[in-house]
Structures are given as C-alpha cells and as structure tokens.
Fold:
Amino acid sequence: EVQVSFMAPPDSFARTYLQDFTRMGVRARRASLGSGEATSQGLARAQLFEAQRQIADANFAGAATLLREALEMNPATAAAWDALERTHVLQGDYAGAVEVRKERLRTLNGGAPDTQSRIAGLDAAFDPSNPSTYWQWLRRDHQDREDSGDYASDVEYAAACVALGDYEDALRNLESALEDRDPALHTLRFDPTWDPLRRDPRFRDISQRIRAALSQGRFPSPAPPPG
Structure:
C-alpha cells in the first residue's frame, strides 16, 4: 500500500498552514488587532488547529469539544463546521454528520428564506441505511452554495466525489482547492476517504507538493496547465 504523508513540523504547520497561508489568516491579519472580532477569529483558529491535530490522532471526542468551543467564539468559522461534520463521518456516523449540517444551517442561515427548504431537502434525501445518500446530497449542496456565492470547500466536494466513485472530478477539485489554499487539504494525509486515490500519480503529486511547500514554510502553487 502506498502511504502518502505531508505532515510538517508542528510549529510550521500551525503558523504556516492554518494561520499565515489561508484566507482566514489573511483576513484576520488585516483586521485590527485590538478589535473583538479579530481576537475571536484568532482564538477560533487556534482551537481549529488543535482540533485538526486531534482528528489526525483519531481523538474525535476531543476534537469535537475543541470545535464546539471554536464555534462559540466565532460561529462563522466555516472550516470548524466542516471539521465538526467530518468527526462524525470518520466514525461512520452519517446521521450525526447530517445533524451538524442542519445545526450549521440554522445557526448561519436561520433567517434566510431557503433555510427550512434546504433542511427539508436534506431530510428527504438522506437515508441513514445508505451512506451514499449523504454524499449525493453533499455534492448537490456544494454546487448550490457556490451558485449562491457562499463558502464551499472544494476538498469537501472532492471527498463526496471519491465516496461516489467519481475520481476524475475529485482530482479536478483538489487542484481547485490548491488554488484556494483550502485548509481542509490537510485531510489528505490521514482521512481514509482518500484511500482509493493514493496510488494515483496525480493524487501523489498533489500530496507531495503540499508536503514540500509546508516543509519550506510556504503554501504550494497550483500545477501549471498541461502543454
């Protein structure tokens, strides 16, 4: 079995990946350091980073606690919602993942006209006995969020593609995630969702580019177009 890892030294990973070279970090640095909003964003990011380490160690309960704390500090931290949902998925608890998604919708979009219809659509689409229905809904919802201008992780979409056997679309979206510097890219090193791709040279190239970049204290650039 091919094992691909891109774990950088902890300090480098913390400062570079989840603070200095993500869009979240850029926005926080631009904010006034004296503002309460910037402070809450910084604390939420610190909690998020530690939670990601706990997830990598399969300490899902500890990660969930940290992520809940991060969301109390800053409920708009999309990456924390994504990670909290993943703690359930990684344990095969798709019903729990769905409940997190519904909670997210109520918290962030409670007043939006389409919130209840999105929740109803999720309830109608998801069959607890058939995990593929979760991934099918996730892929459709990702497209809906992109169409409406909301945050949508290309890594999350790629994971849904892998789970549904659409490996080509998954690889295309991982390249897009590199362009966006998606913080969820760290899941490539430990999440079993990616196991079907680990022997693919393109997946290995993406992983190696991330590993090389993080070891040098920078985030990778996307691959040049073919030809």
